[in-house]
Known about the structure:
Order of helices and strands of chain B: HHHHHHEHHHHH
CATH architecture of the largest domain in chain A: Sandwich
Helix content of chain A: 25-40%
Largest sheet of chain B: none
CATH topology of the largest domain in chain B: Rna Polymerase Sigma Factor, Chain: A
Distance between the termini of chain A: 92 Å
Low-confidence stretches of chain A: 82-86, 109-116, 218-227
Largest interface: A-B, 83 and 71 residues
Strand content of chain B: under 5%
Order of helices and strands of chain A: HHHHHHEEEEEEEEEEEEEEHEHEEHEE
Radius of gyration of chain A: 26 Å
CATH architecture of the largest domain in chain B: Orthogonal Bundle
Distance between the termini of chain B: 29 Å
Oligomer: heterodimer
Helix content of chain B: 55-70%
Mean pLDDT of chain B: 71
CATH topology of the largest domain in chain A: Jelly Rolls
Amino acid sequence: xxxxxxxxxxxxxxxxxxxxxxxxxxxxxxxxxxxxxxxxxxxxxxxxxxxxxxxxxxxxxxxxxxxxxxxxxxxxxxxxxxxxxxxxxxxxxxxxxxxxxxxxxxxxxxxxxxxxxxxxxxxxxxxxxxxxxxxxxxxxxxxxxxxxxxxxxxxxxxxxxxxxxxxxxxxxxxxxxxxxxxxxxxxxxxxxxxxxxxxxxxxxxxxxxxxxxxxxxxxxxxxxxxxxxxxxxxxxxxxxxxxxxxxxxxxxxxxxxxxxxxxxxxxxxxxxxxxxxxxxxxxxxxxxxxxxxxxxxxxxxxxxxxxxxxxxxxxxxxxxxxxxxxxxxxxxxxxxxxxxxxxxxxxxxxx
Amino acid sequence: xxxxxxxxxxxxxxxxxxxxxxxxxxxxxxxxxxxxxxxxxxxxxxxxxxxxxxxxxxxxxxxxxxxxxxxxxxxxxxxxxxxxxxxxxxxxxxxxxxxxxxxxxxxxxxxxxxxxxxxxxxxxxxxxxxxxxxxxxxxxxxxxxxxxxxxxxxxxxxxxxxxxxxxxxxxxxxxxxxxxxxxxxxxxxxxxxxxxxxxxxxxxxxxxxxxxxxxxxx
Lengths: 351, 218
Protein backbone atom coordinates (compact mmCIF):
# COMPACT_ATOMS: atom_id res chain seq x y z
CA UNK A 1 0.00 0.00 0.00
CA UNK A 2 1.17 3.49 -0.81
CA UNK A 3 2.49 5.37 2.23
CA UNK A 4 0.62 8.58 2.89
CA UNK A 5 2.02 11.56 4.75
CA UNK A 6 -0.11 12.78 7.69
CA UNK A 7 -1.66 15.55 5.61
CA UNK A 8 -2.68 13.12 2.84
CA UNK A 9 -4.00 10.68 5.43
CA UNK A 10 -6.11 13.40 7.04
CA UNK A 11 -7.54 14.53 3.75
CA UNK A 12 -8.27 10.88 2.80
CA UNK A 13 -10.20 10.41 6.06
CA UNK A 14 -12.08 13.65 5.51
CA UNK A 15 -12.91 12.60 1.95
CA UNK A 16 -14.23 9.26 3.22
CA UNK A 17 -16.41 11.01 5.79
CA UNK A 18 -17.78 13.33 3.12
CA UNK A 19 -18.61 10.36 0.91
CA UNK A 20 -20.31 8.57 3.79
CA UNK A 21 -22.36 11.69 4.66
CA UNK A 22 -23.44 12.00 1.05
CA UNK A 23 -24.43 8.34 0.83
CA UNK A 24 -26.33 8.61 4.10
CA UNK A 25 -28.23 11.61 2.71
CA UNK A 26 -29.08 9.73 -0.46
CA UNK A 27 -30.14 6.59 1.41
CA UNK A 28 -32.28 8.61 3.81
CA UNK A 29 -34.24 10.30 1.03
CA UNK A 30 -34.35 7.06 -0.97
CA UNK A 31 -31.65 5.93 -3.35
CA UNK A 32 -32.51 6.54 -7.01
CA UNK A 33 -32.06 3.58 -9.35
CA UNK A 34 -29.26 5.34 -11.22
CA UNK A 35 -27.38 5.84 -7.93
CA UNK A 36 -27.60 2.18 -6.98
CA UNK A 37 -24.60 0.96 -8.96
CA UNK A 38 -22.43 3.72 -7.51
CA UNK A 39 -23.46 2.75 -3.99
CA UNK A 40 -22.65 -0.93 -4.65
CA UNK A 41 -19.19 0.05 -5.88
CA UNK A 42 -18.63 2.32 -2.89
CA UNK A 43 -19.65 -0.50 -0.54
CA UNK A 44 -17.27 -2.92 -2.26
CA UNK A 45 -14.41 -0.44 -2.13
CA UNK A 46 -14.74 0.60 1.50
CA UNK A 47 -15.66 -1.78 4.26
CA UNK A 48 -15.95 1.05 6.80
CA UNK A 49 -18.55 2.95 4.76
CA UNK A 50 -21.57 1.38 6.42
CA UNK A 51 -20.24 2.05 9.92
CA UNK A 52 -19.82 5.73 9.00
CA UNK A 53 -23.33 5.82 7.55
CA UNK A 54 -24.66 4.18 10.71
CA UNK A 55 -23.00 6.76 12.94
CA UNK A 56 -24.49 9.60 10.87
CA UNK A 57 -27.87 7.93 11.11
CA UNK A 58 -27.49 7.72 14.93
CA UNK A 59 -26.61 11.40 15.06
CA UNK A 60 -29.68 12.40 13.04
CA UNK A 61 -31.95 10.10 15.10
CA UNK A 62 -30.59 11.60 18.34
CA UNK A 63 -31.23 15.11 17.04
CA UNK A 64 -34.72 14.15 15.87
CA UNK A 65 -35.56 12.85 19.35
CA UNK A 66 -35.03 16.30 20.88
CA UNK A 67 -38.04 17.56 22.82
CA UNK A 68 -40.47 19.28 20.49
CA UNK A 69 -40.24 22.63 22.32
CA UNK A 70 -36.49 22.68 21.61
CA UNK A 71 -37.22 21.88 18.02
CA UNK A 72 -39.84 24.59 17.80
CA UNK A 73 -37.43 27.21 19.06
CA UNK A 74 -34.79 26.02 16.62
CA UNK A 75 -37.31 26.02 13.80
CA UNK A 76 -38.50 29.50 14.59
CA UNK A 77 -34.95 30.79 14.83
CA UNK A 78 -34.37 29.09 11.56
CA UNK A 79 -37.38 30.66 9.91
CA UNK A 80 -36.28 34.06 11.16
CA UNK A 81 -33.13 33.66 9.17
CA UNK A 82 -35.40 33.70 6.12
CA UNK A 83 -34.50 32.65 2.64
CA UNK A 84 -33.44 36.21 1.78
CA UNK A 85 -30.29 35.70 3.80
CA UNK A 86 -29.26 33.22 1.17
CA UNK A 87 -29.42 35.89 -1.49
CA UNK A 88 -27.89 39.02 0.11
CA UNK A 89 -26.15 37.83 3.26
CA UNK A 90 -24.41 41.05 4.35
CA UNK A 91 -27.26 43.42 3.64
CA UNK A 92 -29.82 41.19 5.28
CA UNK A 93 -27.71 40.34 8.30
CA UNK A 94 -27.43 44.10 8.95
CA UNK A 95 -31.16 44.59 8.52
CA UNK A 96 -31.83 41.52 10.67
CA UNK A 97 -29.66 42.92 13.46
CA UNK A 98 -31.57 46.23 13.40
CA UNK A 99 -34.89 44.43 13.25
CA UNK A 100 -33.93 42.16 16.12
CA UNK A 101 -33.08 45.20 18.22
CA UNK A 102 -36.34 46.87 17.24
CA UNK A 103 -38.53 43.76 17.70
CA UNK A 104 -36.74 42.81 20.91
CA UNK A 105 -37.27 46.31 22.25
CA UNK A 106 -40.92 46.32 21.23
CA UNK A 107 -41.41 42.87 22.72
CA UNK A 108 -40.02 43.85 26.11
CA UNK A 109 -41.95 47.10 25.95
CA UNK A 110 -45.20 45.27 25.20
CA UNK A 111 -44.58 42.64 27.83
CA UNK A 112 -43.83 45.28 30.38
CA UNK A 113 -46.97 47.27 29.64
CA UNK A 114 -49.21 44.20 29.00
CA UNK A 115 -50.28 45.36 25.58
CA UNK A 116 -52.73 43.12 23.78
CA UNK A 117 -50.59 41.04 21.43
CA UNK A 118 -52.46 38.56 19.18
CA UNK A 119 -49.39 36.31 18.98
CA UNK A 120 -49.49 35.92 22.78
CA UNK A 121 -53.02 34.64 23.03
CA UNK A 122 -54.60 32.51 25.75
CA UNK A 123 -58.18 31.34 25.95
CA UNK A 124 -60.09 28.74 27.90
CA UNK A 125 -63.06 27.49 25.92
CA UNK A 126 -65.92 26.38 28.17
CA UNK A 127 -68.08 23.37 27.28
CA UNK A 128 -71.37 24.11 25.53
CA UNK A 129 -74.39 21.86 25.05
CA UNK A 130 -74.17 22.26 21.27
CA UNK A 131 -71.48 22.16 18.56
CA UNK A 132 -70.05 25.45 17.39
CA UNK A 133 -67.28 27.00 15.33
CA UNK A 134 -64.53 29.06 16.89
CA UNK A 135 -61.97 31.21 15.10
CA UNK A 136 -58.48 31.66 16.50
CA UNK A 137 -56.43 34.83 15.99
CA UNK A 138 -54.33 33.26 13.23
CA UNK A 139 -57.49 32.31 11.26
CA UNK A 140 -57.24 28.64 12.21
CA UNK A 141 -60.76 27.30 12.66
CA UNK A 142 -61.99 24.93 15.36
CA UNK A 143 -65.27 23.02 14.96
CA UNK A 144 -65.94 22.19 18.57
CA UNK A 145 -68.24 19.31 19.49
CA UNK A 146 -70.73 19.52 22.36
CA UNK A 147 -69.38 19.36 25.92
CA UNK A 148 -65.78 19.75 24.77
CA UNK A 149 -63.26 21.63 26.88
CA UNK A 150 -60.05 23.11 25.58
CA UNK A 151 -57.33 25.55 26.39
CA UNK A 152 -55.68 27.59 23.64
CA UNK A 153 -52.18 28.97 24.22
CA UNK A 154 -50.36 30.92 21.53
CA UNK A 155 -46.85 32.23 21.93
CA UNK A 156 -44.28 33.66 19.54
CA UNK A 157 -42.83 30.15 19.17
CA UNK A 158 -45.81 27.85 19.08
CA UNK A 159 -49.55 27.44 18.91
CA UNK A 160 -50.85 24.90 21.35
CA UNK A 161 -54.34 23.58 22.07
CA UNK A 162 -54.96 21.22 24.99
CA UNK A 163 -58.09 19.16 24.54
CA UNK A 164 -59.48 18.06 27.91
CA UNK A 165 -62.44 16.14 26.59
CA UNK A 166 -64.76 16.01 23.61
CA UNK A 167 -64.20 16.31 19.91
CA UNK A 168 -62.73 19.08 17.78
CA UNK A 169 -62.12 19.42 14.07
CA UNK A 170 -59.01 21.53 13.44
CA UNK A 171 -58.53 23.48 10.24
CA UNK A 172 -55.03 24.80 10.77
CA UNK A 173 -53.79 28.00 9.18
CA UNK A 174 -50.22 27.34 7.98
CA UNK A 175 -47.49 29.13 9.93
CA UNK A 176 -44.00 27.76 9.40
CA UNK A 177 -42.64 29.74 12.37
CA UNK A 178 -45.13 28.51 14.94
CA UNK A 179 -46.07 24.83 14.75
CA UNK A 180 -49.62 23.93 15.72
CA UNK A 181 -49.81 21.19 18.35
CA UNK A 182 -52.82 19.53 19.93
CA UNK A 183 -52.21 17.90 23.30
CA UNK A 184 -54.55 15.23 24.59
CA UNK A 185 -54.03 12.70 27.35
CA UNK A 186 -50.24 12.74 27.32
CA UNK A 187 -49.92 12.78 23.54
CA UNK A 188 -49.02 15.62 21.25
CA UNK A 189 -50.32 15.71 17.71
CA UNK A 190 -48.47 18.21 15.55
CA UNK A 191 -50.02 19.54 12.39
CA UNK A 192 -48.06 20.00 9.21
CA UNK A 193 -50.42 22.35 7.26
CA UNK A 194 -53.39 20.25 8.06
CA UNK A 195 -57.06 19.65 8.79
CA UNK A 196 -57.85 16.87 11.21
CA UNK A 197 -60.35 15.70 13.78
CA UNK A 198 -59.40 14.75 17.33
CA UNK A 199 -61.83 12.85 19.52
CA UNK A 200 -60.93 12.25 23.16
CA UNK A 201 -63.18 9.69 24.78
CA UNK A 202 -62.05 6.31 26.17
CA UNK A 203 -59.61 6.22 23.29
CA UNK A 204 -58.07 9.05 21.28
CA UNK A 205 -58.99 9.09 17.61
CA UNK A 206 -57.39 11.34 15.02
CA UNK A 207 -58.84 11.41 11.50
CA UNK A 208 -56.64 13.31 9.05
CA UNK A 209 -58.63 14.87 6.23
CA UNK A 210 -55.87 17.04 4.76
CA UNK A 211 -52.07 17.11 4.99
CA UNK A 212 -50.05 15.19 7.56
CA UNK A 213 -49.80 15.09 11.33
CA UNK A 214 -46.97 13.85 13.49
CA UNK A 215 -47.52 12.03 16.76
CA UNK A 216 -45.31 12.51 19.77
CA UNK A 217 -45.59 11.44 23.36
CA UNK A 218 -45.51 13.82 26.30
CA UNK A 219 -45.04 12.95 29.90
CA UNK A 220 -45.09 15.45 32.75
CA UNK A 221 -43.93 18.79 31.49
CA UNK A 222 -41.33 17.32 29.17
CA UNK A 223 -42.01 16.32 25.66
CA UNK A 224 -40.46 13.53 23.70
CA UNK A 225 -41.10 11.60 20.59
CA UNK A 226 -42.96 8.38 21.21
CA UNK A 227 -40.94 5.23 21.23
CA UNK A 228 -43.27 2.81 19.59
CA UNK A 229 -42.79 -0.94 19.32
CA UNK A 230 -44.57 -3.20 16.91
CA UNK A 231 -45.94 -6.64 17.72
CA UNK A 232 -42.51 -8.19 17.07
CA UNK A 233 -41.05 -5.93 19.76
CA UNK A 234 -39.04 -3.89 17.26
CA UNK A 235 -38.86 -0.13 17.59
CA UNK A 236 -40.56 1.49 14.64
CA UNK A 237 -40.58 5.05 13.38
CA UNK A 238 -42.63 7.71 15.08
CA UNK A 239 -45.92 7.55 13.22
CA UNK A 240 -46.75 10.19 10.68
CA UNK A 241 -50.42 10.12 9.84
CA UNK A 242 -51.35 11.15 6.35
CA UNK A 243 -54.49 12.35 4.66
CA UNK A 244 -57.18 9.65 4.63
CA UNK A 245 -55.72 7.84 7.62
CA UNK A 246 -56.90 7.39 11.17
CA UNK A 247 -54.78 7.13 14.28
CA UNK A 248 -56.24 5.32 17.29
CA UNK A 249 -54.68 5.33 20.74
CA UNK A 250 -56.28 2.77 23.03
CA UNK A 251 -55.42 2.13 26.67
CA UNK A 252 -54.55 -1.48 27.43
CA UNK A 253 -55.45 -1.97 31.13
CA UNK A 254 -53.71 -5.35 31.35
CA UNK A 255 -50.26 -3.92 30.60
CA UNK A 256 -50.90 -0.27 31.48
CA UNK A 257 -49.54 0.60 28.07
CA UNK A 258 -51.29 2.10 25.09
CA UNK A 259 -51.88 0.57 21.72
CA UNK A 260 -51.36 2.82 18.73
CA UNK A 261 -52.87 1.93 15.41
CA UNK A 262 -52.66 3.74 12.12
CA UNK A 263 -54.98 2.62 9.36
CA UNK A 264 -57.02 3.90 6.44
CA UNK A 265 -60.05 5.89 7.61
CA UNK A 266 -63.43 4.24 7.22
CA UNK A 267 -66.30 6.05 5.48
CA UNK A 268 -68.09 6.47 8.83
CA UNK A 269 -65.01 8.09 10.40
CA UNK A 270 -64.66 10.57 7.56
CA UNK A 271 -68.40 11.29 7.67
CA UNK A 272 -68.21 11.85 11.44
CA UNK A 273 -65.18 14.12 11.06
CA UNK A 274 -67.18 16.29 8.67
CA UNK A 275 -70.47 16.09 10.58
CA UNK A 276 -70.20 19.79 11.52
CA UNK A 277 -70.23 20.70 7.87
CA UNK A 278 -73.86 21.74 7.40
CA UNK A 279 -75.28 24.29 5.02
CA UNK A 280 -75.49 27.90 6.12
CA UNK A 281 -78.95 28.28 4.62
CA UNK A 282 -81.97 26.05 4.04
CA UNK A 283 -82.16 24.56 0.61
CA UNK A 284 -85.70 25.99 0.22
CA UNK A 285 -84.72 29.42 1.43
CA UNK A 286 -84.03 31.34 4.66
CA UNK A 287 -84.15 35.03 5.43
CA UNK A 288 -80.87 36.77 6.30
CA UNK A 289 -82.30 37.41 9.80
CA UNK A 290 -82.75 33.60 10.25
CA UNK A 291 -79.34 32.87 8.78
CA UNK A 292 -77.73 35.36 11.18
CA UNK A 293 -79.03 33.53 14.28
CA UNK A 294 -77.04 30.37 13.50
CA UNK A 295 -74.21 31.97 11.54
CA UNK A 296 -71.75 32.42 14.40
CA UNK A 297 -72.27 28.87 15.69
CA UNK A 298 -71.66 27.46 12.23
CA UNK A 299 -68.79 29.68 11.10
CA UNK A 300 -67.28 31.48 14.09
CA UNK A 301 -68.16 34.88 12.55
CA UNK A 302 -70.94 37.12 13.89
CA UNK A 303 -73.24 38.19 11.06
CA UNK A 304 -74.38 41.79 11.53
CA UNK A 305 -77.15 43.10 9.27
CA UNK A 306 -76.48 46.82 9.18
CA UNK A 307 -79.19 47.67 6.70
CA UNK A 308 -82.63 46.76 8.21
CA UNK A 309 -84.07 46.33 4.72
CA UNK A 310 -81.91 43.24 4.29
CA UNK A 311 -83.46 41.38 7.26
CA UNK A 312 -86.15 39.76 5.16
CA UNK A 313 -83.99 39.10 2.13
CA UNK A 314 -84.45 35.38 1.34
CA UNK A 315 -81.65 33.16 0.07
CA UNK A 316 -81.85 29.43 -0.80
CA UNK A 317 -79.40 26.70 -1.79
CA UNK A 318 -76.46 24.87 -0.24
CA UNK A 319 -73.52 26.81 1.18
CA UNK A 320 -71.17 24.62 3.27
CA UNK A 321 -70.30 26.27 6.58
CA UNK A 322 -66.56 26.13 5.81
CA UNK A 323 -67.06 28.24 2.71
CA UNK A 324 -67.87 31.62 4.22
CA UNK A 325 -65.97 33.38 1.42
CA UNK A 326 -68.10 31.65 -1.23
CA UNK A 327 -71.28 32.63 0.59
CA UNK A 328 -70.20 36.28 0.87
CA UNK A 329 -69.17 36.38 -2.76
CA UNK A 330 -72.68 35.32 -3.79
CA UNK A 331 -74.18 38.11 -1.66
CA UNK A 332 -71.74 40.71 -2.93
CA UNK A 333 -71.41 39.87 -6.61
CA UNK A 334 -74.73 38.10 -7.17
CA UNK A 335 -77.03 40.47 -5.28
CA UNK A 336 -74.91 43.64 -4.91
CA UNK A 337 -75.09 43.57 -1.09
CA UNK A 338 -72.10 45.44 0.40
CA UNK A 339 -70.02 43.16 2.63
CA UNK A 340 -67.43 44.22 5.18
CA UNK A 341 -65.37 41.58 6.94
CA UNK A 342 -63.45 42.14 10.19
CA UNK A 343 -61.53 39.76 12.43
CA UNK A 344 -64.70 38.35 14.05
CA UNK A 345 -67.62 40.04 12.27
CA UNK A 346 -69.24 40.22 8.88
CA UNK A 347 -71.31 43.34 8.28
CA UNK A 348 -73.94 43.29 5.53
CA UNK A 349 -75.23 46.52 3.98
CA UNK A 350 -74.44 50.04 5.00
CA UNK A 351 -75.45 51.37 8.40
CA UNK B 1 -38.13 -13.68 5.54
CA UNK B 2 -38.07 -17.24 4.24
CA UNK B 3 -41.66 -17.34 3.15
CA UNK B 4 -40.74 -17.04 -0.57
CA UNK B 5 -38.87 -20.30 -0.47
CA UNK B 6 -40.84 -23.27 -1.80
CA UNK B 7 -41.20 -26.45 0.28
CA UNK B 8 -38.77 -28.44 -1.84
CA UNK B 9 -35.95 -25.93 -1.60
CA UNK B 10 -36.52 -25.54 2.14
CA UNK B 11 -36.18 -29.28 2.54
CA UNK B 12 -33.13 -29.33 0.32
CA UNK B 13 -31.51 -26.46 2.13
CA UNK B 14 -31.99 -28.14 5.47
CA UNK B 15 -30.48 -31.33 4.08
CA UNK B 16 -27.49 -29.51 2.60
CA UNK B 17 -26.80 -27.66 5.81
CA UNK B 18 -27.12 -30.85 7.79
CA UNK B 19 -24.65 -32.67 5.54
CA UNK B 20 -22.28 -29.75 5.63
CA UNK B 21 -22.35 -29.47 9.42
CA UNK B 22 -21.34 -33.10 9.64
CA UNK B 23 -18.41 -32.42 7.36
CA UNK B 24 -17.29 -29.25 9.13
CA UNK B 25 -17.48 -30.81 12.56
CA UNK B 26 -14.97 -33.43 11.42
CA UNK B 27 -17.28 -36.36 12.06
CA UNK B 28 -16.99 -39.29 9.77
CA UNK B 29 -19.43 -38.77 6.98
CA UNK B 30 -22.14 -41.34 7.51
CA UNK B 31 -23.11 -42.72 4.17
CA UNK B 32 -25.87 -44.75 5.80
CA UNK B 33 -27.88 -41.73 6.86
CA UNK B 34 -31.51 -42.78 6.75
CA UNK B 35 -33.30 -40.23 4.64
CA UNK B 36 -37.04 -40.18 4.01
CA UNK B 37 -37.92 -42.07 0.89
CA UNK B 38 -39.10 -39.41 -1.51
CA UNK B 39 -39.49 -39.65 -5.28
CA UNK B 40 -37.14 -36.74 -5.86
CA UNK B 41 -34.49 -38.13 -3.50
CA UNK B 42 -31.97 -38.82 -6.24
CA UNK B 43 -32.48 -35.35 -7.63
CA UNK B 44 -32.15 -33.85 -4.17
CA UNK B 45 -28.91 -35.63 -3.48
CA UNK B 46 -27.53 -34.26 -6.76
CA UNK B 47 -28.61 -30.77 -5.79
CA UNK B 48 -27.13 -31.22 -2.39
CA UNK B 49 -23.80 -32.21 -3.87
CA UNK B 50 -23.91 -29.31 -6.28
CA UNK B 51 -24.79 -26.94 -3.43
CA UNK B 52 -21.89 -28.16 -1.27
CA UNK B 53 -19.45 -28.10 -4.13
CA UNK B 54 -20.42 -24.86 -5.88
CA UNK B 55 -22.06 -22.69 -3.24
CA UNK B 56 -21.25 -23.58 0.34
CA UNK B 57 -17.51 -23.49 -0.21
CA UNK B 58 -17.73 -19.71 -0.58
CA UNK B 59 -19.38 -19.20 2.79
CA UNK B 60 -16.18 -18.15 4.64
CA UNK B 61 -15.44 -15.64 1.88
CA UNK B 62 -19.00 -14.32 1.99
CA UNK B 63 -18.90 -13.99 5.77
CA UNK B 64 -15.66 -12.05 5.50
CA UNK B 65 -17.19 -9.71 2.92
CA UNK B 66 -20.34 -9.19 4.99
CA UNK B 67 -18.54 -8.83 8.33
CA UNK B 68 -18.54 -5.00 8.32
CA UNK B 69 -21.10 -4.45 5.63
CA UNK B 70 -24.45 -5.48 7.11
CA UNK B 71 -26.65 -3.02 8.97
CA UNK B 72 -26.72 -3.48 12.74
CA UNK B 73 -30.28 -4.80 12.78
CA UNK B 74 -29.52 -7.63 10.33
CA UNK B 75 -27.80 -10.97 10.90
CA UNK B 76 -25.21 -12.25 8.43
CA UNK B 77 -26.87 -15.70 8.72
CA UNK B 78 -30.18 -14.27 7.54
CA UNK B 79 -28.60 -12.82 4.42
CA UNK B 80 -26.79 -16.06 3.68
CA UNK B 81 -29.92 -18.19 4.16
CA UNK B 82 -31.93 -15.92 1.91
CA UNK B 83 -29.18 -15.99 -0.72
CA UNK B 84 -28.91 -19.81 -0.60
CA UNK B 85 -32.65 -20.13 -1.04
CA UNK B 86 -32.55 -17.80 -4.04
CA UNK B 87 -29.65 -19.53 -5.73
CA UNK B 88 -31.25 -22.95 -5.21
CA UNK B 89 -34.50 -21.73 -6.74
CA UNK B 90 -32.51 -20.40 -9.69
CA UNK B 91 -30.65 -23.71 -9.99
CA UNK B 92 -33.94 -25.60 -10.08
CA UNK B 93 -35.55 -23.34 -12.65
CA UNK B 94 -32.85 -22.30 -15.12
CA UNK B 95 -29.52 -23.81 -14.08
CA UNK B 96 -26.43 -21.77 -13.28
CA UNK B 97 -23.25 -21.38 -15.30
CA UNK B 98 -21.16 -19.34 -12.88
CA UNK B 99 -22.43 -19.97 -9.34
CA UNK B 100 -19.74 -17.96 -7.57
CA UNK B 101 -20.39 -14.73 -9.40
CA UNK B 102 -24.17 -15.17 -9.12
CA UNK B 103 -23.91 -15.98 -5.43
CA UNK B 104 -21.88 -12.85 -4.68
CA UNK B 105 -24.28 -10.75 -6.73
CA UNK B 106 -27.29 -12.15 -4.86
CA UNK B 107 -25.66 -11.63 -1.46
CA UNK B 108 -24.73 -8.04 -2.28
CA UNK B 109 -28.17 -7.24 -3.68
CA UNK B 110 -29.95 -8.65 -0.63
CA UNK B 111 -27.63 -6.74 1.67
CA UNK B 112 -28.17 -3.49 -0.24
CA UNK B 113 -31.94 -4.05 0.03
CA UNK B 114 -31.62 -4.31 3.80
CA UNK B 115 -29.50 -1.16 3.91
CA UNK B 116 -31.99 0.77 1.78
CA UNK B 117 -34.86 -0.42 3.96
CA UNK B 118 -33.07 0.56 7.12
CA UNK B 119 -32.10 4.10 6.18
CA UNK B 120 -34.66 5.19 3.64
CA UNK B 121 -37.49 7.20 5.08
CA UNK B 122 -39.55 6.24 2.04
CA UNK B 123 -39.81 2.65 3.19
CA UNK B 124 -41.18 3.59 6.61
CA UNK B 125 -44.59 4.21 5.17
CA UNK B 126 -47.72 3.98 7.22
CA UNK B 127 -48.98 1.47 4.66
CA UNK B 128 -46.15 -0.83 5.65
CA UNK B 129 -46.83 -0.32 9.31
CA UNK B 130 -50.47 -1.23 8.79
CA UNK B 131 -49.52 -4.78 8.02
CA UNK B 132 -48.56 -5.24 11.62
CA UNK B 133 -51.05 -5.76 14.42
CA UNK B 134 -50.54 -2.42 16.04
CA UNK B 135 -47.95 -0.58 18.04
CA UNK B 136 -47.32 -0.68 21.71
CA UNK B 137 -45.78 2.21 23.54
CA UNK B 138 -43.29 0.76 25.96
CA UNK B 139 -43.31 2.00 29.53
CA UNK B 140 -39.83 3.41 29.85
CA UNK B 141 -38.83 5.73 27.09
CA UNK B 142 -36.23 7.59 29.10
CA UNK B 143 -33.28 5.71 27.62
CA UNK B 144 -34.08 6.92 24.13
CA UNK B 145 -34.75 10.49 25.09
CA UNK B 146 -31.89 12.96 25.26
CA UNK B 147 -31.64 14.49 28.71
CA UNK B 148 -29.97 17.46 30.40
CA UNK B 149 -26.61 18.21 28.84
CA UNK B 150 -27.35 15.95 25.92
CA UNK B 151 -30.26 18.16 24.83
CA UNK B 152 -27.97 21.19 25.01
CA UNK B 153 -25.23 19.43 23.04
CA UNK B 154 -27.63 18.37 20.33
CA UNK B 155 -29.16 21.82 20.17
CA UNK B 156 -25.71 23.39 19.94
CA UNK B 157 -24.79 20.99 17.18
CA UNK B 158 -27.67 22.29 15.08
CA UNK B 159 -26.93 25.89 16.01
CA UNK B 160 -23.32 25.39 14.91
CA UNK B 161 -24.45 24.83 11.32
CA UNK B 162 -24.16 27.68 8.83
CA UNK B 163 -27.50 29.48 8.21
CA UNK B 164 -28.39 27.99 4.86
CA UNK B 165 -27.30 24.51 5.89
CA UNK B 166 -29.25 24.67 9.19
CA UNK B 167 -32.36 25.85 7.42
CA UNK B 168 -32.24 22.93 4.97
CA UNK B 169 -31.36 20.44 7.73
CA UNK B 170 -34.35 21.49 9.85
CA UNK B 171 -36.71 21.56 6.87
CA UNK B 172 -35.76 17.99 6.05
CA UNK B 173 -35.56 16.42 9.49
CA UNK B 174 -38.18 18.33 11.46
CA UNK B 175 -40.62 19.70 8.95
CA UNK B 176 -40.36 16.44 6.99
CA UNK B 177 -40.20 18.28 3.70
CA UNK B 178 -38.98 16.33 0.69
CA UNK B 179 -35.82 17.20 -1.18
CA UNK B 180 -37.95 18.55 -4.04
CA UNK B 181 -40.12 20.66 -1.72
CA UNK B 182 -37.05 22.20 -0.07
CA UNK B 183 -35.51 22.90 -3.46
CA UNK B 184 -38.56 24.69 -4.77
CA UNK B 185 -39.16 26.60 -1.54
CA UNK B 186 -35.60 27.94 -1.47
CA UNK B 187 -35.26 28.14 -5.24
CA UNK B 188 -32.17 25.95 -5.32
CA UNK B 189 -31.46 22.66 -7.08
CA UNK B 190 -32.21 19.28 -5.45
CA UNK B 191 -28.48 18.49 -5.74
CA UNK B 192 -27.67 21.53 -3.59
CA UNK B 193 -30.21 20.26 -1.06
CA UNK B 194 -28.43 16.89 -0.95
CA UNK B 195 -25.03 18.55 -0.63
CA UNK B 196 -26.18 20.83 2.20
CA UNK B 197 -27.84 17.94 4.05
CA UNK B 198 -24.62 15.94 3.79
CA UNK B 199 -22.62 18.90 5.11
CA UNK B 200 -25.17 19.30 7.91
CA UNK B 201 -25.04 15.71 9.11
CA UNK B 202 -21.27 15.59 8.90
CA UNK B 203 -20.79 18.84 10.81
CA UNK B 204 -23.30 17.87 13.51
CA UNK B 205 -21.61 14.51 13.92
CA UNK B 206 -18.10 16.01 14.19
CA UNK B 207 -19.38 18.69 16.57
CA UNK B 208 -20.89 16.06 18.87
CA UNK B 209 -17.83 13.86 18.67
CA UNK B 210 -15.61 16.72 19.73
CA UNK B 211 -17.95 17.79 22.49
CA UNK B 212 -19.17 14.49 23.83
CA UNK B 213 -18.30 11.39 21.80
CA UNK B 214 -20.92 9.17 23.45
CA UNK B 215 -23.85 11.31 22.24
CA UNK B 216 -23.35 10.34 18.65
CA UNK B 217 -22.34 6.81 19.46
CA UNK B 218 -25.32 6.04 21.70
